[in-house]
Amino acid sequence: MKWQRPALLWTAVLAAGLGLWAGHRFSPGPSAPAAPTTASTATAVKPALQVGDPLPALILPDVAEQPLDLRARFAGRPLLINVWASWCAPCVEEMPELARFAEAQGDNGVQVLGIALDAPDDVRAFLLRVPVDYPIVVETPGPGDASVQLGNTQGLLPYSVLFDAQGRRVKAKLGPFAHGEIDGWVK
């Protein structure tokens, strides 16, 4: 009798697996062909931003809720964009390093921009506690937010992307910068 229990269990597991496979393999397709999609009926899925691709046309509100055109505002100099959120512990931990780097750049070095995927009130409250001197814009998190448009296909934070002076993507990093890491990373 004891040998029957494992055999019965394995038989049930095998039957369930075959049932799932058959259901997936032999499930009927749509009964009618789908209607063609147009720009007015669906948005095209864009491939992830690659090295050499231009900075997407993004206009986002700053913390004072004024629109900021990223291409116009940051043209002509390299740009390091850091996507973060006030509730993201690694994001908060790397902010002093980003602030140090931004301050060391002066008027001709790499520009730094923070994109907060957060509620505007939460960002303002956070920046009162942890002030930074580089610009911050705010974006509502979602499947097509600025982070995704900048190539963050995993949706994790923090996410940083570097653009050259011509506005072309150079590289990206998922995860926080360690102390002193940014200086070598942007070269």
UniProtKB/TrEMBL annotation:
Cell compartments where the protein resides: Cell envelope
One Pfam family cited in the UniProt record for this chain: Redoxin
Major localisation: other
Gene3D superfamilies, alphabetized: Glutaredoxin
UniProt xrefs under CDD domains: TlpA_like_family
InterPro entries on file: Redoxin, Thioredoxin-like_sf, Thioredoxin_CS, Thioredoxin_domain, Thioredoxin_ResA/DsbE_sf
Record domain Thioredoxin: where: 49-187
Keywords assigned: Cytochrome c-type biogenesis, Redox-active center
Full protein name: TlpA disulfide reductase family protein
Source species: Stenotrophomonas muris
